[in-house]
Amino acid sequence: DAGITQSPRHKVTETGTPVTLRCHQTENHRYMYWYRQDPGHGLRLIHYSYGVKDTDKGEVSDGYSVSRSKTEDFLLTLESATSSQTSVYFCAIRGRGGPGGTDTQYFGPGTRLTVL
Amino acid sequence: GESVGLHLPTLSVQEGDNSIINCAYSNSASDYFIWYKQESGKGPQFIIDIRSNMDKRQGQRVTVLLNKTVKHLSLQIAATQPGDSAVYFCAERVQGAQKLVFGQGTRLTINP
């Protein structure tokens, strides 16, 4: 499981409230990613981080912010949740994969977020 | 568990048969490809990967084939088992990029 945990695993919240999702890794990986997964869209990148305090936007970053104050934790914040942000959120890290040591991405178990 | 796709392409095979799942990728500059398996309620699980300088790579019961001419990737699963039932999707990395682009996936169902 690449040592990735996500919390909470399930959350129901109301429109307009702030929400923070946490991703924690135990293997000192430099790169971490946040994705959302929705029917008909597959996995879409929200933000990613390439080091402490170093982050960049993905394809669906509007309405989301991230922070990485230490290597092991990558936080995703919805400043004011909307119903369109109801989704399953996955965190991933970049680690060693297949031939020649090419780095690949490994995923956490996901957080199911419902915004009412 | 969570629904990963309400209208995914589906493939049904008999237990013990071989299955082939296909993926068309979009970018001729992609140099690395990955297959993931996702069971209901779980995160995507890495299965096997291949670099663009290879045509074929084998793992345990799985083989990935890459045809760069037509930008096509396939995953072959030998002697399917009930535990192989899941959604399978491919991902590609454009050369030099730090990000992956994911396909929507195929739902594989193993019939007893």
Could you walk me through the main structural features you see in this protein, from its secondary elements to its overall organization?
- The complex is a heterodimer of chains A (116) and B (112).
- With 116 residues, chain A is mainly beta.
- Helices cover 0% and strands 59% of the residues of chain A.
- Chain A has no helices and eleven strands.
- Chain A has strands spanning 4-7, 10-13, 19-25, 32-38, 42-51, 54-57, 64-70, 73-78, 87-96, 103-107, 111-115.
- In chain A, strands 2, 4, 5, 6, 9, 10 and 11 form a seven-stranded mixed beta sheet that branches.
- Chain B is mainly beta and 112 residues long.
- In chain B, the strands form two sheets. In chain B, strands 1, 3, 4, 8, 9 and 10 form a six-stranded mixed beta sheet that branches. A four-stranded antiparallel beta sheet of chain B has the order 2-7-6-5, with no helix packed on it.
- In chain B, a hairpin with a 6-residue loop joins strand 8 and strand 9.
- Chain B is globular and about 45 Å long.
- Mean pLDDT of chain B is 90; it is low at 1-5.
- Chains A and B meet through strand 5, strand 9 and strand 10 of A and strand 3 and strand 4 of B.
